Amino acid sequence: MTLKREDVKNIAHLARLNIDEGAVDRYAADLSRILELVDQMNQVNTDDVMPMAHPMDASQRLRADEVSESNQRDKFQAIAPDVEIGLYRVPKVIE
Questions:
Q1: How far is Cα 24 from Cα 6, in angstroms, rounded to an integer?
Q2: Are 5 and 23 contacting, i.e. CB atoms less than 8 angstroms apart?
Q3: Which residues lie across from 88 on neighbouring strands?
Q4: 43, 41, 30, 40: which is closest to 2 by C-alpha?
Q5: What phi, psi does 68 have (nearest 5°)?
Q6: CA 76 to CA 69: how far, in whole Å?
Q7: What pLDDT is recorded for position 61?
Q8: Is 47 helix (H, G, I), strand (E, B) or coil?
Q9: How far apart are CA 71 and CA 14, in angstroms?
Q10: Burial class (CB in 10 A: 0-12, 13-18, 19+), 15
Q11: Spatial separation of the C-alpha atoms in residues 8 and 26, rounded to whole Å
Q12: Alpha carbon 72 to chain centroid distance?
């Protein structure tokens, strides 16, 4: 797909970008090459390719999900400016 000057200007307008008039042709050529690459990638047969989450097939080293501290909610809420039924109350900021 080849983009024209008008296409680039329209895209820039929609994205609210200010593009220098002298650079429009360069952007059109660069974006056209990107779209051609995407088109080539879409034509590749990937039917037998298994999807993966990471190209290195690595796994995260995670710590055990265990409770490490005691519940101190009452202690923290005792110094809070406004608490009701165990919840922190905050002023309304959005109308």
A1: 9
A2: no
A3: 83
A4: 30
A5: -115, -10
A6: 14
A7: 84
A8: coil
A9: 51
A10: exposed
A11: 10
A12: 35
What residue type is assigned to position 66 of the chain? E
Q: What is the 3-state secondary structure (H, E, C) of 31-43?
A: HHHHHHHHHHHHC
Q: Residue holding tokens 């490490």?
A: 68
Largest CA distance in the chain: 66
Provide the percentage of residues in the chain whose pLDDT is more than 90: 75
Cα–Cα distance between 10 and 7 in angstroms, integer? 5
For the stretch 7-38, pLDDT in tens is: 999 999 999 999 999 999 999 999 999 999 99
Residue 65 CB: number of other CB atoms within 10 A?
A: 5
pLDDT at 51: 85
Locate the DSSP E strands across the chain: 83-84, 87-88
Q: Is 33 or 95 the better-scoring residue by pLDDT?
A: 33
CB-CB neighbours of 87 under 10 Å: 10
